[in-house]
Structure formats: C-alpha cells, structure tokens
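[Solved] Which block belongs to which protein?

Original post:
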Amino acid sequence: ACHFSMGELDIAKDWLLDARYELSRVDSPMENTWILEAKIARAEMRYEDIPYLLGRAESQEPETKPFQGVREGLMDTLPEFQFTSAKTSLDLVRVRRSQRRSQVVENLPLDLIRANVAIDRGDLNTARRHLRAMKEVLDAQSQPDLQAEWHRISGELALIEQKYQTAAEHFDEEVNSLKQSKVYRDLAEVLAQSAKAYERGGNPDIAADRLCRAARVHFGKGNYQAAWDLTQEAGRLSANASNATIQRSEEHTSELQSRQY
C-alpha cells in the first residue's frame, strides 16, 4: 500500500504477489490484496480488469461459517428435532440480517472504487448512485478512512458538476476525516483542492486560508519550496481577502524567508 501511495506501481504489484502467497500459506483472507490490485489497475487505466479483481475481493470466504456460533450455542440446550423452533428461526433471521449488514460494510472499499471508475469514465449517474448508497452506511459507521475517501470522490464529482461550494465542503470534510484517521500524508494536497474549489466558487478569502494551511503542512515537513509557492499563491488571492487571512499569509512569508531566503 505504501508503494502504491508513492506511485511505485510495479513495486507494489511485486509485493502483492508475495503477500498473496504468504497469506495463502496461512489460510488468511486475501480480499485486501485484490482491492489494492484493483486500485493499481485503475491508476494504470486498465478498466477492463477491475470487475474481475473486485469480484475476487467480493468472493473471499468469511472467516467463520454462517450460523456456526448460533447452532453450536443452541445445540447445548436443544435436541436436534427442536432446532426449527420459533426462537431458533428468529435467531437465524437476526444472524442473517447481521451478516447482510456486515457484508455491506465490507463492500464499501469496493463500491468506492466503482464510484471512482464511474467518474473516470464520465458515468456520473452511476457514480452518484454508488455514493448515495454508501452514505447511509458510512454515517452509521466510525471509519474515518473510508469517509475521507467518500468525501474526496464526492468533491471531485461536485467539481465536475461545477458545484464549487459543495466540492469545497467535501474536501474540508475529507481533511477532518484524514486527521481522525491520523493519515497526514495527503493533507496539503486536499487543502489545495479545497482552495481551488473555494476560489472557483468566488470565495478567495477562504481559498487563501486553505492555501496557508497547506503551506503550513509543507513547512512542517521541511518542504520549504512548496510552502513558499503556496504562500505566494495565497498572497495573490488575499488581495480581496479578509485582514486575518492577509496577516496569516504575511506571517508564513516572513517565516519562510527567515528559514530559507
């Protein structure tokens, strides 16, 4: 996954082969390897391979057999002929519902990829359908990593539809979800995306603020040139911005100049 995030796709594919072999040796689930390979296929624009890869991820056997725990617990107190009693049938219905809910949650990473692919191919209606179906499930979960990706895709869709305020709000929510996940690698990029959406939506003051925050992230990582460039861009936008944003931009500029220039 790290190699994929860094764009080293060939190395990532080699690691996937090794990981799949090791997982098969210990009889461990391999759905995450198929999901990652589907992401790689999308990055390489091999869209024809993605349905097969997602199908492999979706068809992985669950770790426990259906109803196994229910049957074993009930058999301690019920004879075999009583297994079809009303109480047992109700327990089985509850287990089936629980399994369906679990399956929907487990399929979220797959549906996120499907939504991404739909946007890539310009099929916005399918993308909207996937995103709507996932929203209710995600709202009931505490999975900020998946919520971050959902907001990213929703933001990109809103940008295409020229709904700039909506896009900016999604990118801001993505930032919040990434922080909750303690995934800071993409913060600067997402903040810059948010700035672009705010600028296109006619809010240069908020756009300048997001660029300043992105510059701060780069500055903290020691990426002084990237921080400097973003600060200069924020300064351009701040011509029509609030005094607070202008002051923040000037503070970043002074700090960068003292560090490097």
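(Second protein starts here: sequence line, then its structure tokens.)
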Amino acid sequence: VYPKVMGMNGGEYLDLLTKHLVMLHPHGRPLSNSFSYTFGFLGKGDTFIDLYLIGYFVVLVNVFLFYWLMRRLSNQSFALIGGIAFVLFSADTTQAFLTHSHQIHPSLLFLLLGFHSYLSGKRGLTYLCGVLILLTYETLFFMLLIAPLLKMRWDKKLRKELLTHAVLIVLIIGGMYVIRSFVGDFRSVEPTFSNLIVTPLLHMIEGPAVAMGTYFYRPVLAVMNFTSEMIVAILVAFLMLYSVLIHFVPEGWKWVSD
C-alpha cells in the first residue's frame, strides 16, 4: 500500500481516496485504508521514517486523550497510573506498527473523543464518533455503550439514559449493517448466529482476563529472552518513569488509600 501511494502525485492520490470513500471500500469501512493512503502520501520520501513518526504522533495523541479521560474521572495520581497502563498495554499483538497506528489507533481516537464528548454533554458528537469508528475499525464500537456510566451519576435517571443510549447505538449499527450489505461485505451478506452473537460475547468474556494476564506474562517472557539492547531500554524506561513519578506524584500513591 505505502510504496504505491508514496509514488503518486496529488491528482492520483485524490482519485484513489475519492474512490474508496464513495464506494465504501474495503468492506464498508473506507476510512481504514484512507488513513494509510493519506499518511503515506504526506510522509512520502526515500525512507519510511516520516510514516513511523506520523504513527507515533497518532499513538501519542491517544495517550494524552486517555490520560485526560482518566483525569476527568478521578485524581491526578489515578490518571497517571491509568496512562502508564495504557502505554504498557501488551494484549495487542499487532506486529506491523504502521497498520497498528494508521488504522487501529484512529478508531481508538474516535472512541476517546466520543467519551469526552459525552462527558461534555455533546452527545451528537459522540454518535458521530461512533459512525466514524464503524467506518474505520468497528471492533471498538460497542465500547461506546458504557459512555453514560462515565458520568459517575448513579441515580434513577441513569436507567433511562442507558436505555436511550443503547437504542441509538443499535440504530447506528443497524444502519451500518444495511450499508455494508449493500456494498457487498461478505460478513454482512452471510451472517450467522456465531459471528453475530456468540463471537462478540466470547470476546467480551475472555478479553478482560487475557488483557490482565498479559501484564504478568509479558514481563516474564521478556526476562526469559533478555538481550543487551533490552537491558539498556529497560534502564532508560525506568529512569524516565522514576522522573515522571517524582514530578507528578510527589505525595506517593495516595490514590490507593483514597
């Protein structure tokens, strides 16, 4: 993908982008490849360095958005630990960083923006972000269901708000299902009980256990495969983490006792 678009001129790039957006390629989620094409066109050169820098910036934006979200929900110490956990999250086994940062992380960016919009009382923007998630990488879409819970307001109005929110989410996914069936997405044209119900439920049940388990498994795996480069990287990371904790958490782990 990248070598192809990096060799295009402006007109060729716009033709390719327009084709994907108008025809909803591929599989009814045109923004996925469109981000890769756009970043590839902007970062074209003799090497892929600019592409990796763009990917790093996208991931960095998501780190700050997640930290800001945690900060809106709790205190600074909790937000810092949550941000570190987000950065170190090791359940994602995507090997190709460009695919990871140019296609998956934009969807995550829309999810985080959707949460922030909901907390700010701009629900219309939340549902717009939901549509953008489905047009980019749909796996994260149903996480929007928890948006009302982030307001930390557990009263009688919450049940009605959750129900209304869920209905709108279902309407959005229903509309996207129709669109994908129209453009010929084989996952929509030939739905089965397994891929519509069983698979998502299994992922929701298994996901938290797998995610938490990797925080313990990955360090063990790293120790078993130590190299000199890893030792240097760990020492540098430890010093950077220590510096962050000293400057941003001067009172220690007070949030634990709170």
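Accepted answer:
You had them paired correctly. Confirming on the second one: The chain has a mean pLDDT of 81.
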